[in-house]
Amino acid sequence: MPSRQVVIHTGRELPGIRVAAQAAALVLEQLCGAVRPGVSTLELDQLDGKLIADTGGTSAFHGYLGYPAQTCISLNEEVVHGIGQATRIIVPGDLVSLDVGVQLDGFIGDNARTVCAGIEPTPEQESLLSATREGLAAGIAAAQGGNYVNDISRAVEESVSKNGFGIVRDFVGHGCGTKLHEAPEVPNFAQRARGARLQPGMVLAIEPMVNAGTHRVVVDPIDKWTVRTADGAPSAHFEHMVLITKDNAEILTWPKTV
User: Fold this and answer.
1) Whole-angstrom Cα distance, residue 42 to residue 126?
2) Stated pTM of the model
3) Nearest residue to 6 (alpha-carbon basis) of 156, 206, 202, 251
């Protein structure tokens, strides 16, 4: 695949990307801790804006292609791109997916996590959460220098599919670093082509979106953003940014401090 279809970040860029990734990780950690019954999704969105500002950054999502919120907050059957609403009140047992993006000094951090509000997840919810986390871990393990994007895709699919869940196909992972979305795309299911060769300096956002039922999704016809499962089954979303090295990938969005 031609080099123009990947982005290789230089040694001068990587320190800034690391800082932005850590800022996003810290905000996500704090935001997850604020999820509790009785809180509206708008309150979480407003808190996210404050937490991002405290890092010195701005939301990488707000205004992107017209997106109106600070962060993506998606509940239960909502897969991604949910918009905070004052009338959407979290109740015990809701699955809350939080996708946080931070732009800091020209660099981007992007990560996501799904948590259960207020109580322990049901066995069915825990199975979905565990399968999604394991799919992400499998994708990261395959993200080694010299492999190809499709090695990541196949690893995620094999991990998730063995548990009988649906893998969203309409939305995928992506390169990330100085722009929110960079080449290459990183699907969560195997492709016919092997895709771009993984090279040191590439930064990828690997993000399985996994549904308890069908892989099919629909976009809200009113807000034009919120993505839901086509059958109303719950969904989970986990995401890390990783730096490709000649060996194992370096996870940039493990929160180091809280």
Assistant:
1) 26
2) 0.96
3) 202
| Beta partners for residue 110, in sequence order | 101
Q: Are 89 and 64 in contact (CB under 8 A)?
A: no
Q: Write the pLDDT tens digit of every residue in 85-121.
A: 999 999 999 999 999 999 999 999 999 999 999 999 9
- Partners of 148 in beta bridges: 197
H-state helical runs in the chain? 14-33, 41-54, 123-142, 149-161
Distance of CA 108 to the CA centre of its chain: 13
Class of residue 124 by CB neighbours under 10 A (exposed 0-12, middle 13-18, buried 19+)? exposed
Q: Which two tokens stand for residue 248?
A: 């194992």
Q: Please give the single-letter amino acid code of residue 44.
A: L
Q: Hey, what amino acid is at 101? A: G
Q: Which two tokens stand for residue 179?
A: 């722009």
Alpha carbon distance 176, 72 (integer Å): 17
Q: What is the pLDDT of residues 127-149, one digit of tens each?
A: 999 999 999 999 999 999 999 99
Q: What is the C-alpha separation between 141 and 241, in angstroms, rounded?
A: 13
Q: What does the DSSP 8-state code read for residue 120?
A: P
The dihedrals phi and psi of 14, each to the nearest 5 degrees, come to -60, -40
Number of C-beta neighbours around residue 193 at 10 A: 9
Q: What pLDDT, in 10s, does the model give residues 22-64?
A: 999 999 999 999 999 999 999 999 999 999 999 999 999 999 9
Q: Note whether 20 and 104 are within 8 A (CB).
A: yes
